[in-house]
């Protein structure tokens, strides 16, 4: 599947197309590295949260951060899934479960 | 087993794990490098073959449609399992005693929460509907859209309107919607077989313009059914948990 000469040139040209949204590769690296660091910090905050309810809220924010990470790594579809599942559905189910468990404990 | 021996075994295992892990990492392709031909082929042919500019959806619902049927039924089975377990519990604990109305045990909600929840119901429905019906044109899809649609119902509950929440999502209707969504996906595949094509073959007209909402044949339709199924499954799970909280534990607290 190695592209022939003309194809390779075409591919290079396609990669070099500049749109109003084109970002310099160095800037993209800065963005990706910083979002990775922020996500690592967010994960640490989730793990270190003391009470379960706070942990769920932190987890929801962490899902938002992960969605931004996927967006920065050019996976908008995964970002959408992470947004709905990681930031909404999972925290909502956990909160409902917590509400049920704590209600029973009373 | 002495602590020293146990520690020794732990470190031996750790060393083995680290060794294999590093070995595996060393074999990975470089950051951002994609080695396989599959993605390049799909990128080149997908839009021309399906008229879907949301190529990820084209992969999910067409090229890898069979995998997605499996995923869909995993969610369906999970929701059915949650409902079965929780309904069983409810039957046990309610025991047919005083039939207090559910709203009696709803906690008072602050006006700020009520207002902000209700404000987001409309946008959630709109976005959910948009995502579920635009899989063929954008990185959206039925899974994301379905979850957002279910969120709209959860917001109605959050705003303290439990009765409205239950009236808008009666159990039988939600169960039926989930079944229709799951069966619709499988039925599209079977329709292709009946027409003499392979399972999940894209037998509908693809439209003339790539990226139009009406394009891509079965891809858009399958995504829509997936949206219904996922939305219904999440509403079902949320409703079961909410009722558990209100009926069972609410009663225990009194």
Task: Write structural notes for this entry.
The complex is a heterodimer of chains A (106) and B (254). With 106 residues, chain A is mainly α. Chain A has one domain. Chain A is built from 4 helices and no strands. With 254 residues, chain B is an all-alpha fold. Chain B has one domain (36-253). Chain B is 72% helix and 0% strand. Chain B has 9 helices and no strands. Chain B has helices at residues 3-26, 38-50, 55-63, 65-94, 111-133, 142-158, 162-168, 171-194, 218-253. The termini of chain B are far apart. The chains are: A mainly alpha (106), B mainly alpha (254). The A-B interface holds A 1, 76-77, 79-81, 83-85, 88-89, 92-93, 96-97, 99-100, 103-104, 106 and B 37, 40-41, 54, 56-57, 131, 139-141, 143-144, 147-148, 150-151, 154, 234, 237-238, 241-242, 244-245, 248-250, 252-253.
What secondary-structure arrangement, pairings included, does this model have?
The complex is a heterodimer of chains A (106) and B (254).
Chain A: H1 5-15, H2 25-48, H3 52-72, H4 76-105
Chain B: H1 3-26, H2 38-50, H3 55-63, H4 65-94, H5 111-133, H6 142-158, H7 162-168, H8 171-194, H9 218-253
Q: How large is the share of residues in beta strands of chain A?
A: under 5%
Quaternary structure annotation:
heterodimer
Count of distinct strands of chain B? 0
Radius of gyration of chain B: 24 Å
């Amino acid at each position: 599947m190695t592209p022939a000469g003309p194809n390779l040139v075409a591919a290079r040209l396609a990669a070099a197309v500049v749109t109003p949204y084109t970002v310099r590769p160095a800037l993209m690296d800065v963005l990706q590295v910083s979002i990775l660091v922020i996500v690592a910090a967010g994960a640490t905050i989730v793990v270190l949260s003391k009470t379960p309810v706070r942990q769920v809220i932190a987890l929801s924010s962490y899902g938002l951060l992960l969605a931004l990470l996927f967006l920065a790594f050019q996976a908008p579809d995964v970002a959408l899934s992470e947004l709905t599942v990681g930031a909404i559905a999972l925290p909502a189910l956990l909160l409902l479960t917590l509400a049920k468990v704590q209600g029973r404990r009373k | 087993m002495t602590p020293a021996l146990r520690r020794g075994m732990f470190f031996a295992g750790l060393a083995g794990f680290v060794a294999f892990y590093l070995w595996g990492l060393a074999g990975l392709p470089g950051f951002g490098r994609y080695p396989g031909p599959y993605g390049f082929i799909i990128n080149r042919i997908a839009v021309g073959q399906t008229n879907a500019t949301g190529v990820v959806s084209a992969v999910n619902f067409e090229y890898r449609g069979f995998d997605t049927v499996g995923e869909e039924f995993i969610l369906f089975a999970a929701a059915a399992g949650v409902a079965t377990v929780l309904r069983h519990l409810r039957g046990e604990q309610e025991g047919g005693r005083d039939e207090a109305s559910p709203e009696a045990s709803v906690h008072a909600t602050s006006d700020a929460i009520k207002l902000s929840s209700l404000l987001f119901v409309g946008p959630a429905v709109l976005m959910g509907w948009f995502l579920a019906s635009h899989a063929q044109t954008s990185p959206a899809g039925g899974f994301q859209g379905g979850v957002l649609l279910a969120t709209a119902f959860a917001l109605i509950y959050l705003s303290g309107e439990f009765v409205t929440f239950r009236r808008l999502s009666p159990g039988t209707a939600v169960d039926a919607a989930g079944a229709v969504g799951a069966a619709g996906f499988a039925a599209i595949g079977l329709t292709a077989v009946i027409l003499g094509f392979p399972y999940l073959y894209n037998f509908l007209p693809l439209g003339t313009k790539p990226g139009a909402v009406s394009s891509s044949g079965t891809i858009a339709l399958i995504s829509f059914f997936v949206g219904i199924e996922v939305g219904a499954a999440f509403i079902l799970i949320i409703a079961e948990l909410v009722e558990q909280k209100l009926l069972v534990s609410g009663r225990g607290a009194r």
